[in-house]
């Protein structure tokens, strides 16, 4: 490494690039292998009722259980899967496994809905809603117990096409949730144009309630607007009791966040749901009772 300063800077730069592109290359190859191998599986995060803190539904969150690298969070592989055109097969396998796992929880009355994230790209795929309806028929889950979470980024591409797919799902009784609300561009437009059942207020806003006066006022106004429109509100990323107290007083319907429960493997979530139904175990209702 006894080079002139300029030269060594360049070679280090080249090396960085090569490493980044090699890492990227191996991630792609790994992902192509991992999806059919069933390494990407559903974890679940409980959502609680704001009024009494009881767990009432779950969101499905994909986790990649890599044989060498351990558990990988979706931020590291969902965008890559989208770019490679692998998000369809990925979501499909996570969806099927999640329904198989959680359909009994619905049947037993432990939860009222299972929320699955759907990539904006899929929403523009002509085969998407047909496929999802077919896959749903293969499971024991009633359409009315499925919530599809969408983000509004797709609106920048083709609202009318996305709307056709969404309306087809809604007609079957599938609930549509607008995810990460408060972070994008076309939120209000989407809200008015689509059959939205649930609004999920993003954690970037929820993190500020009770702390930042302007955010608190804005979130309270959002709760009131949703109520007036007959839309359910879920607060995402609730991490402390002060937020929960504020949100409950503001009329929030449901809450989700580390304060109540982190995403966990199916066996753990099932145990939490059963313990709570049996009247003990889970402490989310005590957190709320204390509030
Ligand atoms: P999302 O749908 O908005 O999911 C909520 C994210 O917030 C999850 O991150 C969850 O673990 C995290 N979270 C929940 N409560 C808290 C909290 O109190 N504090 C903080 N800091 N974070 C909290 P995760 O699991 O890493 O997922 C990230 C994103 O990846 C999801 O955001 C969703 O957009 C996407 N995603 C996850 N699974 C799938 C999937 O199967 N298919 C598709 N297409 N996208 C998925
Ligand atoms: Mg989501
Ligand atoms: Mg979200
Ligand atoms: Mg998100």
TrEMBL record:
<protein>
    <submittedName>
        <fullName>Diguanylate cyclase (GGDEF)-like protein</fullName>
    </submittedName>
</protein>
<keyword id="KW-0175">Coiled coil</keyword>
<feature type="domain" description="EAL">
    <location>
        <begin position="24"/>
        <end position="277"/>
    </location>
</feature>
